[in-house]
């Protein structure tokens, strides 16, 4: 029987299109709410995959809005709420959650209220009528994106896209939505091309993965590393592109797969790094939005310029697909890894 995980990976662009339809007419209203509320800061909270989404959203927001932006693990905020009181006073707090029922997120919001923090709660969830949504002044629900598998794939893509749309509305940055629209159009054909190549890659003799990405895409790349841990149950980590030289390089060798999302800038430095990784014996896979000539390096491109933020989804797809096909080799169950639950109740 076909695993739900691969069905959800393949179906994520249909879900992405629905998510964009939800936000398409909402950007002017979001801009008005942002200006009327005039928050002193913007904070994204989540757990696990949703926290990794939050990190990328923080970095995107920081580049577009004139207020501080934060990403905070919900469990940290719950346990140490008093430490965050000053920076979250007057904040817009965006809770990112697949289920809208994760205990740590609900307890974190409760702790903020108990501390007397003045904040506005916004909810991004993939279920309807959730405890989180009931508390939120602004809420968006995307039940079509909810993953039935424990390991999130489609859910992550749509939570991240929803967050980008939210930021686009707050900042009046319509180009973010434009990039996502281009990605949604190109995505199905891209996945169809990439899947057989990732299946072949997964069959090669590596047993650990290193994921490299910079800027606002680094948080989502962390989710790519988590996909290898959860789905294939092999060691994996994420580093910034050039920063991998500063220590992590010592653990890279012939049994390592390195997946890198490279921007057009800094190509000479990137090429030098790739050569250094090859000398260590690593297998390399490079993603770029537009085709790139990198002699001796396996490359995959979307074929369309969608911007760095939207391109992070296409890069994440490669991690998801490779992790899924590696799970067939390792024998792990990608739908229900031992010891994991779809969401955590405490």
Q: What features would you describe in this structure?
A:
It is built from 13 helices and 10 strands. With 346 residues, it is α/β, with parallel strands linked by helices. Helix 2 packs antiparallel against helix 10 (174-202). The radius of gyration is 19 Å and the shape is globular. The two termini are 33 Å apart. The relative contact order is 0.15. The mean pLDDT is 95.
Gist of the model:
The chain is built from 13 helices and 10 strands. It is of the alpha/beta class and 346 residues long.
Q: Order of strands across the widest beta sheet? A: 2-1-3-4-5
Mean pLDDT: 95
- Number of DSSP-assigned strands: 10
**Euclidean distance between termini CA atoms:** 33 Å
Which stretches of 5+ consecutive residues score pLDDT under 50? none
Tell me what portion of residues adopts beta-strand conformation.
15-25%
Major sheet details:
5 strands, parallel
| Tertiary shape | globular
N to C succession of SSEs: HHHEHEHHEHEHEHHEHEEHEEH
**Count of DSSP H/I helices:** 13
Structural class: alpha/beta
Helical residues, percent: 40-55%
Using only CA atoms, what is the Rg? 19 Å
